[in-house]
Design brief:
It is built from 9 helices and 4 strands; from the N terminus they run ββββααααααααα. Helix 5 crosses helix 6, helix 6 runs antiparallel to helix 8 and helix 8 packs across helix 9. By secondary structure, it is mainly alpha-helical. Helices cover about 60% and strands about 5% of the residues. The structure holds zinc ion. The site of zinc ion has 8 residues, from loops. Zinc ion binds next to loops. This is Protein ARV.
């Protein structure tokens, strides 16, 4: 069966088109058959408005971005966020040895322990994604429904854009309180939960549960990797 290309941002029903282009140059937004509202009102909106609605975690904005756009930057975004996270972890390790010279960022990338931090951050992200996907897979098996798992991973990566808030910490060093990092984490998890909710088209509680399962597994992986991390760093420092 051919895949329906679009979704209604209001009710998540399938749609074959977002607008109709009449021969005299007039465009008309398609009305959803199910809810009788425009299939995707955001095609007329400025990207800044869409971004604000996404920051406010509106499901309509999430549906527009995930289902009705060809946005394909999730892996680049993921690598960029991991680099920021790795740098923060690495700089926390360096402590008082850290220099304020921005040129040092280039030098830091030659450090093996920086790559180790990148590896551990990537591992924890993979465990988080694996936890959420496994939970969703079990739920869909139980409910005899079908979920596009690659689309779920893409939605989770895109909804982690809040990690870009780490960039100020990279640029202006890491003079941030743990509370600030906790708020960034909470925002990212809220967005992740909303992305799961949009993909599954389910109730809020189920999506929060899915993210909590992923977070629990990520925390376990972080604790386990913490010991490995110190062992690896001790080995590298002894070389
Ligand atoms: Zn609709």
């Amino acid at each position: 069966m051919a895949k329906v290309p679009y979704r209604c941002v209001e009710c998540s029903s399938n749609a074959h088109e977002l607008h109709r282009d009449y021969s005299n140059g007039i465009l008309k937004i398609t009305i959803c058959d199910s809810c009788q509202k425009p299939v995707d009102k955001y095609i007329e909106y400025d990207p800044a408005i869409i971004l604000i609605d996404a920051i406010l975690c509106k499901t309509q904005a999430f549906r527009h971005i995930i289902f009705n756009t060809k946005i394909n930057i999730h892996w680049k975004l993921c690598v960029f966020c991991l680099l920021c996270e790795a740098y923060l972890r690495w700089s926390q390790l360096q402590g008082s040895e850290h220099s304020s010279d921005p040129a040092d960022i280039i030098r830091y990338t030659k450090e093996w322990d920086f790559y180790c931090m990148f590896g551990f951050a990537a591992l924890e992200l993979a465990v988080f994604l694996g936890g959420v996907v496994a939970f969703v897979w079990m739920v869909q098996s139980f409910l005899q429904s079908s979920v596009d798992l690659p689309m779920l991973v893409k939605a989770l990566l895109l909804s982690s854009y809040g990690k870009l808030l780490l960039i100020p910490a990279v640029i202006w060093e890491h003079d941030y309180s743990p509370l600030c990092f906790s708020l960034i984490k909470l925002f990212v998890l809220t967005s992740n939960s909303q992305a799961v909710r949009v993909i599954l088209n389910c109730r809020r509680r189920l999506s929060i549960l899915a993210v909590c399962v992923g977070l629990l597994m990520e925390t376990c992986a972080a604790v386990a990797s913490q010991r490995l991390q110190w062992s690896v760093l001790d080995f590298l420092l002894s070389q």
